[in-house]
Design goal:
Rossmann fold; five-stranded mixed sheet; binds adenosine-5'-triphosphate; binds magnesium ion; alpha/beta; Helix Hairpins; 3 domains; rod-shaped; 14 strands
């Protein structure tokens, strides 16, 4: 077997030996074998424990018969404190049986004092075994680390795949929404367009002045409707693509409400609907006046369109960091299961008579986008047949 300790290699030895002469003999034996030795000699348990705790050794050599201490207890302590250091019992008295027992307990070897020549060989073997053990442990540790790294890489790969799948799903969903938007848009444009073309084609043949006027007014009505749809579609698309910017300015909320009512062009159909501004307070706010006006216009047009008689009231309350605006009506209301859907583009509730009440279903989608742009949120409370209350917030900034 190859001697692990080359000459001139410093060997740190802890020697548990109460007979100084024996310790010197051991030292000599190392020197004779050509080793450089740095040897601490402990003569009793406490000293031995102290050395073990405070220093590092290549090997422990232990006598068996010490006052109140023996090789078994010394081995036990070594295994508890420094299990990696090889332990050799060097004894003059230990019998074969005890020696085997000591080996079973974890000692590397035993050497009889009357055959000291074996010590160098035993030490060399023990060191080689210990070295192999260390290398094996290191290899195992490296394997565990490599395995952990592999598990981590796999988890990362799975996460990435999941993200890619989600991104793909989002892209497909947005593609689907785009297609349905285009399909809806072309349908909404075609309806008034067909009507315009149909009545326009009748005009050259028609002789009755009354009918010509009638057709012309239908054409004008549909053209206006078409223009409104195109305006809404363009506005909605611009909001969606983020082209429209938030442009804040300072103004009084109360004045905004009265201006909205004043600027509101009521359709010529006469309805017994009253308009009411519920809030009398003035409140200086900082927001985008033009967009707030557009929001109110859409909400009030809806309230008027879907209310045949009663009241439309508007107002606001200030709560901590936000202002809550509202538009309430006493109209047809919205079925409970469609309260969320009315904010989707082109959606019109099932209780609306689409033949007699015109609409595209873009008004509330625009409102929702505008409110997001202003940093707020919108919701509706409604009871079928009793009316609807639309609420929306904007952050309060003076
Ligand atoms: P337009 O695009 O011309 O505004 P629209 O009014 O039908 O058409 P939205 O304003 O988006 O579309 O409203 C969506 C749907 O929500 C309406 O069709 C209607 O069913 C319902 N709705 C909105 N406001 C009210 C309201 N005040 N009372 C009852 N139903 C309403
Ligand atoms: Mg509307």
């Amino acid at each position: 077997m190859k001697n692990k300790l080359e000459s001139n290699t410093l060997l740190n030895v802890l020697c548990l030996e109460d007979v100084l002469k024996d310790a010197e003999l051991i030292n000599e034996m190392f020197v004779d074998a050509g080793y450089l030795v740095n040897m601490d000699i402990a003569i009793e348990k406490n000293e031995y424990a102290e050395f073990l705790k405070s220093r590092n050794y290549d090997i422990i050599l232990s006598d068996n018969s010490l006052p109140n201490f023996d090789a078994f207890s010394a081995l036990k302590l070594a295994l508890a404190l420094k299990p990696e250091i090889p332990f050799i019992c060097v004894s003059g008295t230990i019998g074969e049986e005890k020696a085997v027992e000591l080996l079973k307990d974890g000692a590397s070897d035993y050497v009889l004092k009357d055959r000291p020549g074996r010590l160098a060989f035993a030490v060399s073997c023990a060191l080689e075994v210990s070295q192999n053990k260390k290398e094996k442990q290191k290899a195992e540790q490296d394997l565990i680390s490599a395995n952990k790294e592999l598990i981590f890489q796999n988890a990362e790969k799975e996460k990435r795949t999941e993200e890619l799948i989600k991104a793909l799903e989002r892209a497909e969903e947005s593609d689907r929404l785009k297609s349905s938007f285009l399909a809806n848009m072309s349908h909404e444009i075609r309806t008034p367009m067909n009507s315009i073309m149909g009545f326009a084609s009748l005009l050259p043949e028609e002789e009755s002045k009354l009918l010509i006027n009638n057709y012309a007014s239908i054409i004008v009505q549909n053209s206006e409707h078409l223009l409104h749809i195109i305006d809404d579609i363009v506005l909605y698309s611009r909001l969606q693509t983020g082209i429209i910017n938030y442009q804040p300015n300072s103004f009084d909320a109360q004045t905004l409400l009265s201006n909205v009512i004043k600027s509101f062009n009521l359709p010529e159909v006469i309805k017994s609907v009253d308009f009411k501004i519920e809030t009398k307070d003035t409140l200086l706010i900082n927001s985008d006046h033009e967009k707030l006006q557009q929001i109110f216009t859409n909400l009030i047009s809806n309230a008027y369109k879907y209310t045949s008689c009663g009241t439309i009231s508007i107002g606001f309350t200030k709560q901590k960091e936000e202002i809550i605006f509202f538009v309430k009506d006493t109209g047809i209301g919205i079925p409970p299961n469609e309260l969320e859907k009315v904010f989707e583009r082109f959606y019109r509730a099932s209780n609306v008579n689409k033949g007699s009440i015109s609409g595209t279903g873009l008004g509330l989608s625009i409102v929702k986008e505008l409110i997001h742009l202003l940093g707020g949120r919108i919701w509706v409370e409604s009871y079928s047949g009793l009316g609807s209350s639309f609420y929306f917030t904007i952050p309060y900034k003076r």
